[in-house]
Specification:
This protein is an alpha/beta fold and 936 residues long. The protein has 32 helices and 33 strands. The chain folds into 5 domains: 184 residues, Rossmann fold; 185 residues, Rossmann fold; 134 residues, D-Maltodextrin-Binding Protein, domain 2, CATH 3.40.190; 95 residues; 92 residues, 3-Layer(aba) Sandwich (D-Maltodextrin-Binding Protein, domain 2). The N terminus and C terminus are likely disordered. This is Glutamate receptor.
Length: 936
């Protein structure tokens, strides 16, 4: 029974499998219809039509591609019209077509994609590069060439590579142009660049329209032009730009890949048109060299000859050829997966009263989703190289070539790929290496710019529209040597900062019309931070003067290179410290004096211990020994000790101590000399740290950033801060002091304080600068004028002109030249701690070795005291101290006598044994003891 059911199941399975295969084979028709929408009247449409027909011929001649099914491409002409494109798309949908190749225009693709989504017919376009044609909004739209998003990224990379910051976009005002420029703006923003002006043109713009647009462009600052348009309109724009003198030195023209398409398809251009493009940069979609591409290129002249078409082969023709192959492979997999060509009515269309539109004849392609999935799964190698899609449905590794139009031809100056940016080697050679987007790795060959120059254009000029720059100048009431209004005038200023600005701006290679405007009421110093904020608000175009470069301000504007270094310092009253009777104690701190004295005593004691048993100079009555230790200790300071050291350990300790004394003596002498010969100033405030720890009031310059810094960074309470305006207010507040309504110190920038102190010697800068900044001129963010002014300031610094201006306005050096200094650098204990540690360690080791040696010697001479359990601990200690106090010669003599007595005892014992007489050992030992006592 089990065998019977097994045979039945095998029979049913084979029958089912047979039916499935037959069903699949029966679903594979002899011919499949595919639509193709092109603009036959354009150069791109003509060459891509030839490429599509060649691909169809190659596919149909190879039965293995579609398994015997023939591919039939129905071509219709959209005539570059959105309306006709819709009509042609509707006509396609009335037939049994599986997919549509095209359309050629992004504008038409936006419209047709909606129809394709509704009827689920894949739409494969190799020329609609609008980045907003996304697979999220139009899931049945398949872009088979690189999106303009990558092209705009390549252009932005080129602009950033040459350090330009603003560009002008010239484009056709339709979906293709607007969306492409929006993508460019997004890519530029990632690199801190921007589009300063958008020059839009009507799709049907004439030469007069182009002239009007370019005239407005010429009045702008930027000289970097990005042209994103159609081939026919692009040549008109360049022609009019040439007529207006805009294809010349200083200009940069970057065209999207419409220009490379013209250069590839139209062949050699007439000299007049080629002259209009001289120095321009354009992009071309990169297709790596391969045998497939080489064979197809070699066939191109025959293919165009048969079709009666004249023109070269562009990258669009290569992508059109691969698009047909992509679709054929997807259709083959579609049939292999059991798909079949069937259509169903759209209920929403049948419910409508379509009238003469005949909308109910359009049907939904039932296998559209399956075919779409198979399209994105295709992974092949075509004439354009490796061909496949990423997870976001863009082509794998898009790349472009950077082309420079020169003379009668053009040359390749580099590549861009999404993998590693700009390079001078083909991208396919970089894919095997890790991506490297460092600035040093971004390279292009030299470019010949408009005007036949190889020098990189600056990228901008001052606008020639008659508008003057509104430059704000702080209307200061103090320190007018830096910046101040000329009395009796409204817009004339003088001072160090003003002369630096005018000298630097005269170095620019172009004229800059400007007008200086006073900022402030003239009674109080203005707030520089508020002045900077008004630049961001558009009230002023720039600001010059004594404006400190701080972190918060750099977030609002761009500053030039600092033209003077400055930083916050503390200024307080100081008094001269004259010499007195106790001036000799100043070199050392009290702790240093105490530690030095202790070490003198310690070293003297250690030497006495090491020398006491050997050296007669260190023996005698206790009073004499105390005097000897004190004398020996302090006489080493002058190397005047008369006692000699005889022990090895004592000599080592003394040698190290004399070295320490030498260093201490030399340092003391040098410090005392400085105290007695150099003028010293003293103050209870030694710097910002000591000032913060007090509760005394602190003065600052009104309008300075010092106030916020003291509050926010140092945590000083606002009630302690006193605003001051004039230098006279500074002097009065410092003289009065905290006890009389003044301030303990003033915190201000060094540049002001050096000028203030030049005639006021009773005050001084205490401590070091606790901020590091400088003064610069402020301009709006990403202003090219800031960069050029920085270059001019550097030139002034290199040629010495900046120093000359400084000496002219800030030459007062009456007190600063004295180099007065607050005395805060007394010799500290920590400066000599290493020497004291070394000396202490030597003393400790010498004593340790000494006590080990004397202990061993004691144990050798008194072995019975160690083994006797009856003797008391105090008795043993007393015996040890007596032994340690005993002279070394006595110990050695006693040791010799003990050895002689032991020898004599052994002789007596031997004689008694030979004579047979017995002698009482106790008597012998008692005699030995008596003899030992007498000898003592």
């Amino acid at each position: 029974m089990r065998l019977f059911w097994t045979l039945i199941l095998i029979f049913l399975y084979n029958g089912y499998s047979s039916e499935g295969v037959n069903s699949t084979l029966s679903a594979r028709p002899k011919v499949v219809n595919v639509g193709c929408m092109l603009s036959f009247n354009t150069a791109v449409g003509k060459v891509t039509k030839v490429a599509v027909e060649a691909a169809v011929e190659d596919i149909n001649s190879n039965p293995s591609v579609l398994g015997g099914t023939k591919l039939n491409v129905i071509s219709l002409d959209s005539n570059s019209s959105g309306f006709l494109g819709i009509v042609e798309a509707i006509r396609f949908m009335e037939t049994d077509i599986m997919a549509i190749i095209g359309p050629q225009s992004s504008v038409i693709a936006h419209v047709v994609s909606n129809i394709a989504n509704e009827l689920q017919v894949p739409l494969l376009s190799f020329a609609a590069t609008d980045p907003t044609l996304s697979s999220l909004q139009y899931p049945f739209f398949v872009r088979t060439s690189p999106s303009d998003m990558f092209q705009m990224a390549a252009i932005a990379e080129v602009i950033a590579h040459y350090e330009w910051r603003e560009v002008i976009a010239i484009y056709i005002d339709d979906d293709f142009g607007r969306n492409g420029i929006a993508a460019l703006a997004e890519q530029l923003a990632k690199r801190r660049c921007s589009i300063s002006y958008k020059a839009a043109m009507k799709p049907e713009a004439t030469l007069d329209d182009a002239r009007d647009v370019l005239v407005q462009v010429a009045l702008r600052e930027s000289r970097i032009m990005v042209v994103h348009t159609y081939p026919s309109k692009g040549l008109d724009i360049f022609s009019m730009a040439r007529y207006l003198g805009m294809i010349d030195n200083g200009y940069v023209w970057i065209a999207t890949h419409w220009l490379s398409t013209i250069l590839d398809t139209d062949g050699p251009l007439p000299p007049d048109k080629k002259e209009n493009l001289d120095g321009a940069i354009t992009l071309r979609i990169h297709t790596p060299d391969s045998e497939l591409k080489k064979n197809f290129v070699s066939r191109w002249s025959n293919l165009t000859g048969k079709a009666g078409v004249t023109g070269g082969m562009s990258s669009y023709a290569l992508y059109a050829y691969d698009t047909v192959w992509l679709l054929a492979r997807a259709i083959n997999e579609f049939f292999n997966q059991g798909g079949n060509i069937s259509f169903s009515k759209d209920p929403r269309l049948t419910e409508q009263n379509s009238g003469s539109l005949n909308l109910d004849s359009m049907s939904i392609f039932d296998g559209g989703k399956l075919l779409l999935d198979e399209i994105y799964k295709v992974n092949m190698t075509g004439v354009t190289g490796p061909y496949g899609f990423t997870s976001d449905r863009n082509l794998f590794r898009p790349a472009f070539e950077v082309i420079n139009v020169v003379g009668t031809g053009f040359r390749k100056v580099g590549y861009w790929c999404n993998y590693s940016g700009l390079s001078i080697v083909p991208p396919e050679t970089l894919y095997s290496k890790p991506p490297n987007r460092s600035s040093s790795n971004q390279q292009l060959h030299g470019i010949i710019w408009p005007g036949q120059t190889i020098e990189k254009p600056r990228g901008w000029v001052f606008p020639n529209n008659g508008r003057q720059l509104k430059i704000a100048v702080p209307n200061r009431v103090s320190f007018r040597e830096f910046v101040g209004k000329v009395p009796g005038t409204t817009d004339s200023f003088r001072g160090y900062c003003i002369e630096v600005f005018t000298t630097a701006i005269n170095l620019l290679p172009y004229a800059v019309p400007y007008k200086l405007l006073a900022f402030g009421d003239g009674h109080n110093n203005p707030e520089d931070t508020e002045l900077v904020r008004l630049i961001t608000a558009g009230v002023y175009d720039a600001a010059i003067g004594d404006i400190a470069i701080t972190t918060n301000r750099t977030k609002m504007v761009d500053f030039t290179q600092p033209y003077i270094e400055s930083g916050l310092v503390v200024v307080a009253p100081v008094k001269q410290q004259n010499s007195n009777a106790w001036a000799f104690l100043r070199p050392f701190t009290p702790r240093m004096w105490c530690i030095t004295g202790v070490f003198f005593l310690v070293v003297g004691t250690v030497i006495w211990i090491l020398e006491h048993r050997l050296n007669d100079d260190f023996r005698g009555p206790p009073s004499k020994q105390v005097v000897t230790v004190l004398w020996f200790s302090f006489s080493t300071l002058f190397n005047a000790h008369r006692e000699n050291t005889v022990s090895t350990l004592g000599r080592i300790v003394l040698l190290i101590w004399l070295f320490v004394v030498l260093i201490i003596n030399s340092s003391y002498t040098a410090s005392l000399t400085s105290i007695l010969t150099v003028q010293k100033l003293s103050s209870p405030i030694t710097g910002i740290e000591s000032l913060v720890n007090t509760k005394d009031p602190i003065g600052y310059q009104s309008g300075s950033f010092a106030r916020n810094y003291l509050i926010d960074e140092l945590g000083i309470h606002e009630s302690r801060l006193v605003p001051l305006n004039l230098p006279e207010d500074y002097a009065k507040a410092l003289k009065d002091g905290p006890s009389h309504g003044g301030v303990a110190a003033i915190v201000d920038e060094r540049a002001y304080m050096e000028l203030f102190l030049s005639t006021r010697c009773q005050f001084s800068i205490l401590g070091q600068e606790f901020t590091k900044n400088g003064w610069g001129f402020a301009f709006p963010r990403d202003s090219p004028l800031a960069l050029d002014m920085s270059t001019a300031i550097l030139k002034l610094s290199e040629n010495g002109e900046l120093q000359r201006i400084h000496d002219k306005w800030l030459s007062g050096i009456a007190c600063t030249s004295q180099n007065t200094k607050l005395e805060v650098d007394r010799l500290q204990l920590k400066s000599f701690s290493g020497l004291f540690v070394l000396c202490g360690l030597a003393c400790f080791l010498a004593l340790l070795i000494y006590f080990v040696m004397i202990t061993c010697q004691y144990c050798h001479h008194y072995p019975e005291s160690e083994s006797s359990g009856g003797s008391s601990r105090s008795g043993r200690l007393q015996t040890f101290l007596s032994f340690a106090d005993e002279k070394e010669e006595s110990v050695r003599s006693r040791s010799k006598r003990r050895q002689l007595d032991a020898t004599s005892v052994r002789s007596v014992d031997q004689n008694a044994s030979v004579n047979g007489s017995r002698i009482d050992r106790s008597e012998i030992y008692s005699n030995r003891v008596v003899s030992f006592g007498e000898s003592v």
